[in-house]
Request: fold
Amino acid sequence: MANSNGSFGLRPLMKQGSAANSTGTNNYTFYEIANGNTNKIYQGSPVIPLSTGFIDIVGAAAGGTVGLLGVFQGCEYVSSTTGKPVFSNTWPGSGADSNHPIKAIVNDDPMQLYVIASDASLTNEAGARAAVFANANFSTATTGTDTTGVSLGRLAVSTIATTAALHLRIMGWVDDPENADFAAAGIGMVVRLNNHFNSNNGAIVAGTPSTTGV
Reply:
């Protein structure tokens, strides 16, 4: 039976570890999007830091080559048409009053775990188990749905490997009876950001991924 999961990008699940707050999320930080940035950014999209001090969506469908800063959760800005504040799941790429900042809410904790739907079959549970602790890239990381403002990003099953530069570290999958058909796309894979800009690893901060899978 086909899984019910659609595409939703990276959805915060819990924090890695056993601290008191490991069942939820924290470290949502406000960053700024440059006024005049025409790139749409959707809720659940991975974002990167820019040398200008702003953030942007990743530069390629597979995730690009820059260490990820975190996951976009929404934004607020002042409408250039109405002069009123707008709170949105997505940055639409236009419509902001240039006299006011575009504030982006980003989950930027390196220890945050996320759920992301697989884009293809994992064959069976053994296939999914073999993927745990390996790395993977995104498929369609730069697109989303304008009506909901939610990302269409998925985990690209064909990229699963130990390659250091891959952006996602697979930690497991969600035990969900409605999304348990390993022979179909849509398994909710639990991941963390493998090459995080805020990691303590200086090589990653410098933009050189250095974390390999097992």
